[in-house]
Amino acid sequence: MLTFLHIAGGVALILFGIRFLRKGLDRLFGQRLPGMLQRVASNRWRAAGAGLVASLAAPSSTAMTLLAVQTVRAGHLPARRVVPLMLGADIGITVMVVLIALRLESMAPVLALAGVLLFQFTRHRTLRGVGQVALAVAFVFMGVATIAGAAGSLQPGGDVAEVIAVFVRHPWLLAGFAALMAVALQSSTAAIALAIGLGAADLGPGVDPLQLAVPIVIGANVGVALTLTGFGWADRATRRLGLTNLVAKGATAALALALLPLLMRGLAALTPSLNAQIAVTHTGFNVAMAALFLPWTDALYALVRRVVPDQPEAAADPAAPRFIFSDHVTGASVALGQSRQEIVRLSSIVRTMLDDAWRALMHRDEAGAQRVQQRDDDVDLLHHRIKRYLTALSPEDDDGFSTEAVMQQLAYLNQLETIGDTIDRGVADLAIKRARGGVWFTDAGWDELDGFYKHVAENLLIAETAFNTHDPVLARRLIDHKRQLNERERELRRRHFERLRAGVELSHESSALHLDLLTHLKAINSCVAHVAYAILDTMPDGPVPQRRATDRATEDAYPADGSAAPAT
Questions:
Q1: Distance in angstroms (rounded) separating the CA atoms of residues 98 and 95
Q2: Could you give phi then psi for residue 400, rounded to 5 degrees?
Q3: pLDDT for 211-233, tens place per residue?
Q4: Residue 298, pLDDT score
Q5: CA atoms of 233 and 538, how far apart (whole Å)
Q6: Are 371 and 386 in contact (CB under 8 A)?
Q7: In this predicted structure, what is the pLDDT of residue 159?
Q8: Residues 431, 435, 438, 440: is their CA dihedral positive or negative?
Q9: Distance between CA atoms of 54 and 49, rounded to whole angstroms?
Q10: Using one digit for the tens of pLDDT, what is the confidence trace for 406-463?
Q11: Do the beta carbons of residue 165 and residue 212 sit within 8 Å?
Q12: CB contact at 8 A, 241 and 259
């Protein structure tokens, strides 16, 4: 029993080390990898090369799995192009197993010392990331050493040895068990490291350690594909990606198991070291898979697409998050990248609400305005879910956690929720009143309102893009537009009052709606502009002080929560 607990403890150390490794790599690369991959993966060969380089930089199967799903869902790359990227990434991921196979356990204390010095006593993000990676590798080495030490105490004929002997006689069963273990642990490296550690044990004359290790390596690779399929199952495109990768790995695994005796003889002739044999098996498996399937990725993806065709599905819940994976994210930068995508999606919904509400106003469509008001409930619910996700982030280990970045996202999120309420209880409500009351605007009055709405809608799009790209140029443009629209709104009110004084009858009938629409559109525009101030305040030189003072001095009487907008 104590031996089993020691082995389990070694596995726990490896798991923690791999999780810590993902967090350190996230500190080093943050949200840059998806954009880098998008720029270089123009064809299948370059995509495979990009995946290889990315996985060498971030040798974690779970990290690459999440990256693949996020890349497809965010629209950075189509699933068809991510298939060769994953084939290349599978080769790069093997670098961690190669390091473990070199049995550098004696270096673990040195790595731990260097990691603590860099992670604990420096403040530079990159240096802390390097220190975190060094600590993570040290933990993995310590875990392998712990398993090897515990396995060395196993007695031939003991209970654990008997169970292992049963598995060795059934390599397909052993591979299946290893695949399930890789899924449960969310790490193929942990499963293979366990095989390396158990290889140190004397399990009796009937058990060849190589017979134990090779099926585990094969099964662990299939487990990575199962994990990718599970993560991406909810979305049709990522489901195809996972199934395509699973078909490639499953076929390679079946071929390897069918040729297992020949494969083991070749490994034994290549090197007598079990650790080297495991490393060669792991790397060779993924190299062989890439060689077999990389030329045919498009055809393979097309085959899977026939199994998972484009067909109408039940309408998805519009308030359900599509980009945040709260159960699988281990790095603050990745979490903030996912929440940013979800907020951009919410912004798109709000922009569509404004367009539809204005269309209902234009055509006196009461039913259309009511549908807009119903969608505000979805906006409120999605806002609540994103807010709960963001507020659950923790500055644990200072893992790339930025209170400022979280506050910026929360601020824009709240502005969007306020805009949704203004559209619901303001613009859409006025559209219903116009439809029921048969109110008409003068041609000049409607043209002025419609032009003002188009400028506000443009600013909504600029704000969304500025938030997503953190572009100071767009932020300054947004502030300039806000000032211009404030002046334009005052000019439009003046013109409206001039028409009233001139005795234009339609202007008297539509006056309340006309002025209320200007009020609500101006309130929306005021909410939109806040994202610009948040961006410019984070710039190294900040906004020009005089400009900042002038901009904020011209803030109208409509605060960020829109509370000053008059009821209608």
A1: 5
A2: 70, 10
A3: 888 898 899 889 888 988 887 78
A4: 87
A5: 38
A6: no
A7: 58
A8: positive
A9: 9
A10: 888 999 999 999 999 999 999 999 999 888 887 788 888 889 999 999 999 999 999 9
A11: no
A12: no
Provide the pLDDT confidence category of residue 538 given band limits of 50, 70 and 90.
low
DSSP code at position 233: T
Q: What's the pLDDT score for residue 318?
A: 73
Domain 332-553 part of CATH 1.20.140.10: no
- Greater pLDDT, 261 or 164: 261
Phi-psi domain of 303 (left: phi exceeds 0; alpha: psi -120 through 50; beta: other): alpha
CA distances 16 to 2, 186, 257, Å, are 21, 11, 31
Distance CA 138, CA 149 (A): 16
SS3 494: helix
For the cut 60, the answer to whether the pLDDT of residue 54 exceeds it is: yes
Predicted confidence (pLDDT) per residue in 24-38, tens digit:
666 555 555 555 666
Residue 494 has pLDDT above 60, yes or no: yes
* Cα–Cα distance, 447 to 157 (Å, whole number): 90
Domain ranges of the chain: 2-307, 332-553
Distances (CA, A) of 163 to 220, 274, 446, 500: 19, 21, 81, 92
Burial profile 139-158: b = 16 or more Cβ within 10 angstroms, e = fewer: bbbbbbbbbbbbbeebeeee
Q: What whole-number distance in Å separates Cα of residue 156 and Cα of residue 206?
A: 9
Contacts of 308 (CB under 8 A, 6+ apart): 236, 239, 240, 243
* Non-local CB neighbours of 166 within 8 Å, separated by 6+ positions: none
Give the pLDDT confidence of 104-152 residue by residue, as tens digits: 677 888 889 998 998 888 878 778 878 888 888 888 888 877 876 776 6
| 540 confidence band (pLDDT: 50, 70, 90) | low
Whole-number Å distance between alpha carbons of 86 and 286: 10
Give which of 378, 373, 381, 360 is closest to 422, Cα–Cα. Answer: 373
- Which value, in Å, is the radius of gyration of the alpha carbons in the chain? 30
For every residue of 434-501, which 3-state class applies, written as one string? HHHHCCCCCHHHHHHHHHHHHHHHHHHHHHHHHHHHCCHHHHHHHHHHHHHHHHHHHHHHHHHHHHHH
DSSP annotation of 296: G
Comparing C-alpha atoms, which of 484, 489, 474, 476 is closest to residue 547? 476
Q: How far apart are the first and last CA of the chain?
A: 74
Identify whether the C-beta of residue 22 lies closer than 8 Å to the C-beta of residue 55: no
**Which residue is listed with tokens 């790339």?**
400
Residues 295/297/299/300 CA torsion (nearest 10 deg): 130
Cα–Cα distance, 463 to 383 (Å, whole number): 17
- Phi, psi (deg, nearest 5) at residue 381: -70, -45
CA distance 220 to 181: 8
Contact 85, 302 (CB under 8 A): no
Phi (first) and psi of residue 311, to 5 degrees: -150, 155
pLDDT tens profile 385-420: 898 888 877 655 444 556 778 888 999 999 999 999
* Six token digits for residue 158: 């003991």
Residue whose C-alpha is closest to residue 281's, from 227, 211, 194, 224: 211
Distance, CA of 67 to CA of 75 (rounded, Å): 12
